[in-house]
Amino acid sequence: MSPSIPTLKLNDGNSIPILGYGLGTANFKRGPAKDKFDESIAQATVTAIRAGYHHLDGAEGYGNETELGAAIARSGVPRDQLFVTTKTSCRKGETIELAFSRSLEKLGLDYVDLYLIHSPFFGEGGKAATKEELQAKWREVEALKDSGRAKSIGVSNYLREHLEAVLEIAKHKPAVNQIEYHPYLQHEGELVEYHRGKGIALEAYSPLTALTKAKGGPVDEVYERLAGKYGVEVGDVALRWVLDQGIVALTTSGSEERLKGWLERLWGFELTEEEVEEISERGKGKHFRGFWNGKFEEGDRR
Q: Where is the signal peptide (predicted)?
């Protein structure tokens, strides 16, 4: 693992770097481009790895597992120093084993460090899966952990009811739930505390949303003030707000300077409990969901 990035111990005894490079936003491939190798994605990922980002977050749904695999091969970083995640979309009529084997082939790897069910929305017509469907898929994922080809297993975009269905039958509890998380989507209803009580780690994707997609909101002033206090950038404050809650942060950038800057500055300061709470309280004044809007009910703040 990257020596400059601290790690978090998971409930299965494995450790995950608390800052990761995600391939699901700027590097997402759509339409006909999915079938063509994108050299720019591979090179951007090599740049991130060499900058010190050894936690790499991918998914079959992003359409770029081949580019991620190429970047891993080109980086020169030994496999045991990388933490590689990919996810299954749970395509209808397809087993988890088939999806996982295809992902391994594209990645050029014989195991992944973390394998996730990408969302609970693999039921009939793209709706949330039933309790029985959630449980059946989880048993399939558990078989991958038992085989040793997925060191840790988990889920993504699951709410409490989805997790409770899985936990009823789980031989291996989900190690991680990866969710959209930022001041404007704090998942009201004590979802974060629920995870802590169950020993399931949270990963936050899109943690910079208040600065990018939803700029012009109540946390802007707090970010600016705290950035001045600590002599850092507003993006550093946004990431620290996540990290200081014990939540893993996933981010991305096409700028090598920005990627290196985060690694240089993030470990030099921490927000106080009062500052974390101030951002949280200000954030409740605005609601914004950047992903899966067609799946969650409008205005759903969970």
A: none
Strands 150-156 and 112-117: parallel
- Containing structural domain, residue 138: 7-209+245-259
Q: Write out the catalytic residue numbers.
A: 62
Would 225 be classed as within a structural domain?
Answer: no
Q: What is the pLDDT of residues 237-292, one digit of tens each?
A: 999 999 999 999 999 988 899 999 999 999 999 999 999 999 999 999 999 998 98
Residue closest to 151 by CA, chosen among 177, 176, 170, 133? 176
Question: What gap in Å lies between CA 207 and CA 223, rounded to an integer?
Answer: 13
118 is in an annotated binding site: yes
Using a cut of 0.85, tell me whether the model's pTM lies above it. Answer: yes
Residue owning tokens 């995950």: 16
Question: Of 94, 78, 75, 81, which is closest to residue 3 (Cα–Cα)?
Answer: 81
> For residue 242, which of 201, 173, 183, 171 has the smallest C-alpha distance?
183
- How many domains does the chain fold into? 1
How many CA atoms does the CB half-sphere of 237 hold within 13 Å? 26
| In-domain check, residue 27 | yes
Residues 6+ apart with CB under 8 A from 7: 1, 15, 16, 17, 18
